């Protein structure tokens, strides 16, 4: 008998789900199904969970026992399709293969440094994921890409992109043989190869690959073969992931396949890739496997929901949101039947950036296992998870309260329908009593702290509301932030907990329809059976779309790629060429922008038109007059599979109502306990309607239909739930919101922060300068009508709280009567609350019914605002006139009219007499982006007000600030008590509940930052007194007061060690005293460009040292600018972080007051006249101690033309201090090696003219050590 059984399997981290389509017994040609869920790891009973599931199903099909030790028979199997988290788990747990990295000399640390950014800007104990490779081999080879019109100095070739590539140093491949042999001798048999510019010139990588394979390496990952896209860091990470995971995946697949009989060679076995397509088992590799399991769920919800909508007469235009709620996190994604799956070409998983086509899945740390905590009178859900061991309280293993416990005590989880697998012996039911008792305990504490009289049920419901809001945020992000209306979507809920929350999520988002598939609990497995087999190929390109020759070259590449993918799909005989269709894409971007969009081939073939339409929809404007560039050509070959059969269920008779299996009590918001019928899914018939409240049990998946919602059972057994829009009309009856609701504080904190974050994403996407778009040197924030900060998205720490001074100054200057609807203000002057001149702030008042109810603002570092040197960071500026255009205030938009002539005059002909901007076009574009970001914030605030009412929104604006104040007071009380307890060690003076600490540090010129810090343990206050700080300096490291405020608020936020909103409340328990005339409060005309980037770091070091929190970090941002009259480039270079009492300082990372990214080496060299000769970790530069300070960075650039180079840095004279007996970190060094061999020490601050061939070397400081080193 030929194969007639189909298997779809999702091998997850905890459970393996199996869906099998089998012949229906007694009905020739008809099919039935079997579903299974079994533990992924159960070595006492089976070696492979997927194979065990197949064995159990085949026992039914064959009608006989198949022993576990015999080969599984395959004659009845038509195909097997699998998704697996094996690769993802190996990456998360760092349990991949032993690998080595082979890379260009000088770049052995490139992947370890990455983009320099730290993952959590407020965590002093910086945790960066470890490298995937164990060894590094640096290769003596080097090429570079020539600029347009540039001539090579030596040998050159034309790369695959059409760019000319100069061979600076040819590869001697045989010289690598002994070094590769040493790897093999040490047991390393998998390597990844990433050489600079191999995306266009892959000859050197291919030669190394050929040698490695000839020598016996089992797996060789060439970055140029995997993802031929520009940017060495993500391409290198992708190669490393592939080398690290593919051997594990091959071992897993071989183990799985080994248990079948020889007939398996005639069975089609395929695996789900991260892009949502299947690939034969032989082609499945590591970098394609990271989203293998979740991808099945996306395919499952997309195709099942769209099919169900078509059954109802939908025209195929309704988009769908997938909502997959699991144990530790929730995945959301979007599918539009007209445009297909939404994909991205770059994602970060487990700290590793992978550059490959992947489904666009957004994950939020809110799931059934998310921990529930109450801190500082606020409800928190996650981001910590209680895990599966010990798990939630109800698991009977001594766990902590989690979302699952809340659902249990509210009656949304019914223990009698779950298997008895809990407790120490894994033979008990879920424990309702313990969960309820735990809620009673936290409720008693909440009531004691807040004066409320909440019940345990109200508290549990409050936590669910907070969890739901956390899960709404990513849905808003993938819809509203991209120009889509949420309410036009259908919500497809699946996963173990998704259907429990779906009605509430849909109601909160204004969505009217929820779809729950009959196999929602195993939809990732079911989706495997609906997916196509795909083959992908792409090529890097460097062409202008408007250039006929360039476009022809791209189209020729597309034809070649089509032939390649078709050949792949027909090579094994599975498909005929006629069964393959090709989807073609161009990766397009505007010249000067780094935001590329992968545009699918439009019906009319006009890629440019399709790109511009999408750009306008997502960003709200078009960059007219800019050339359109083709970065990559991509082709996706798709071969249609034989799919699963949709199996209908029996239909009900007209008027027949469902019969409840039992009744239970369920707690609902605003209604309390409601008697609720419970239905078994198996008892429901097509055509039945179920009015809420109701619970439907479908295996171990629970669907909650909330009151006034109605569920309709479809012909195919799915559930379509109608959710009426019942938003309260808050404007009609304004309630009293003067008393804070702890639950709503958390919800509004989320909403305010979400708005600020989406403003930031709009700014990043719409800006053109590298500083904002790539380096992320910007911040966005919301302010109250008094100018007080409400929410500041944590982008760049030096901007924290600083913009409040800016908004307050504008408000004081203009007054409420001087501001009108449609006004937009622009400012950058330090006297008006600014930091330094390149940081331009755009402020927009938010009007409601004719009065100002909020302000929104965005601050971004512009590429140039004039001044003495390109980049507007002159090292030797003496007054603000040397630093560029200084604007106290100007109405960029006056009552809706854009004042272009006025802003151009201010930027090009500054009142100070300074030279004007060198990058006017970029300034104007970035200002437009800032206006757009503010407008996005206004729209979102108005939506929030429409939803909740102005009275409630403004009341909770104040309550959120009060809550932040409380959190800071609690921290200061704890910190003060800790200091009192350790007064002798810290050198503190104790006077009752008050304790005084002192700290002092020097700038390189000897200027002192003096701090006397007084903490009050009784009242939770802190007084930061900077009396004794040195006078204003004639240099440029004077810092406006806003910078000191930002350093203080950053330091406090680091010490709180919990999520709190960054707002004005943080500073209410804090007083900051800075004497006028000192260099932390200079005169109006003082030069300040270094205060933002240098002095801010010293103030932070002093604050943290006073608390005894950590040793000094590198204490500098290592500012480098170079350029001429035609271009300017700016970067900040990371260094070593300071060690703390129980953690080592991180190496080669941005510290404290900055977290900007650094430009990828290939982008840098492609765009600017430099060669990056070295980018490495400065080994041994961190201070020693009981815990060690982080090491700095070595960055070496060779200039290819005459330019002006400016360096603005610190810690070149005085080293970063160790703490508590730890050693100091190494001082930084800036040197210039002239083309004639002369080496010049540039000191900390210098501006020099360099010639072609000169080499700049910057060695950044290390962090200080902490504690005396133990012998």
TrEMBL record:
Record-stated family: Belongs to the oxoprolinase family.
Lineage, opening ranks: Eukaryota, Viridiplantae, Chlorophyta, Mamiellophyceae, Mamiellales
Domain Hydantoinase B/oxoprolinase: 741-1268
InterPro entries linked to this entry: ACX-like_C (IPR049517), Hydant_A_N (IPR008040), Hydantoinase_A (IPR002821), Hydantoinase_B (IPR003692), Oxoprolinase-like (IPR045079)
Cellular component GO terms, alphabetical: cytosol
Domain Hydantoinase/oxoprolinase N-terminal positions: 6-216
Gene Ontology MF annotations: 5-oxoprolinase (ATP-hydrolyzing) activity
Protein name: 5-oxoprolinase
Gene Ontology process terms (BP): glutathione catabolic process
The organism's place on the tree of life at top rank: Eukaryota
Domain Acetophenone carboxylase-like C-terminal: 544-707
Domain Hydantoinase A/oxoprolinase, chain residue ranges per copy: 235-536
